[in-house]
Amino acid sequence: MGESPVAEVGQAADSEPVASYSREQSTLKNDAYKQFIKLQVSLAAGTKNSLGLSSYEQAHAHYCALAGESRDPDAQFAMGWLYSMGKGVEVNHDIAARFFSLAAIQGHRDAREWLDKEPGNAELAVLPACMHKQGNSAAEVLFRKRGPIYQLVKKHAPVYGVDVDFAMAVIAVESGFNPKATSRKKAQGLMQLLPDTQARFHVKDAYDPEQNIKGGLSYLRWLITYFKGDVELVAAAYNAGENAVQRHQGIPPYPETRDYVKRIAHYYKKKHHEVKQRSAMQQAEMIPAAS
User: Fold this and answer.
1) Which domain of life does this protein belong to (predicted)?
2) Catalytic amino acids?
3) For the chain, which terminus, N or C, has the lower number of CB atoms within 10 Å?
4) Which residue(s) pair with 272 in the sheet?
5) Reported CATH class of domain 138-267
6) Cα–Cα distance between 72 and 259 in angstroms, integer?
C-alpha cells in the first residue's frame, strides 16, 4: 500500500471520473505528446517551437506544472524522459521511474516501455516540489466533490471509528479514487490493499469499492489504536507497514514513505486522530483472519 499503482486502468465502477484516459484521448485533448516530440527536435536544433520554450529547464517547469495540475500522462512521460536523460535537470533514475509509472497507470504505452528499461526504483523517488502544488488535481477535485465514493466512506467510517476526511485522504493518495488501481506489488483497489491485508481483514474482492473501503477502514482503525492516534505514524505505517515504524521508532527514513506522509497531510491537517473505544462486537469484527 502507498506505492504508485501500476498497470491496471479502469473507469470507476460508481461512474465518478478518474484521472485515467487512453493515449488517443490524451493526445486529442491537449496534444502534449506530439508537442513534446517536436520540442525535443526544436531544442536540439536551436529552432523555435510552439510552446515558446528555449531550454530544457523551461521544459521541465512547463511539464511539471502540467503533470501536477492535470495528471496528464503525456506530461508525466515527458518528466520521466527529462529525468532519465538528464535534460534540464540532473539524472535521477528513481524520479524517472516514478513518472513513467504514473504515466503507465493511465495506459501510456511509451511510458510502459521506458519503465521496463529504467534502472531506477520508483518507490525511492521524491517528486519535485512543483508536483506538490496540486490544488486542482483530479484527486483533489474528487476529494472535495463528495460523490459516490464519499458516500460509502461516510456510511462506514463512523462504524470503524475513523474520521471520514482521514479515510478520504488515504484514498486520494493511494489510488486517486480509482477502484481498479493495481500496484506493482499487487496492492489493489481504492485503498490499495495488499493480498495479506485483504486476508487479514476478510476482503474477498478488493476491486469492489465497498469491500475495499471496509477493509481499509479496519486496517486504519487498527493502526490508529496501535499508534495512539498519531496521524503521521498511522500514515507511515499504512505505507511502509507497522513493523517498519516500530523498527525505526518513528517515520522510516524511506523517501517514498516521507513523501507519502506529506501527501496525506496535504489533505488531512490534523496531527492527532481520536481513539474511540469500541464495543466487544466491533472488536471481534476487526480480529485478523487466521494465517
Assistant:
1) Eukaryota
2) 174
3) C
4) 230
5) mainly alpha
6) 21
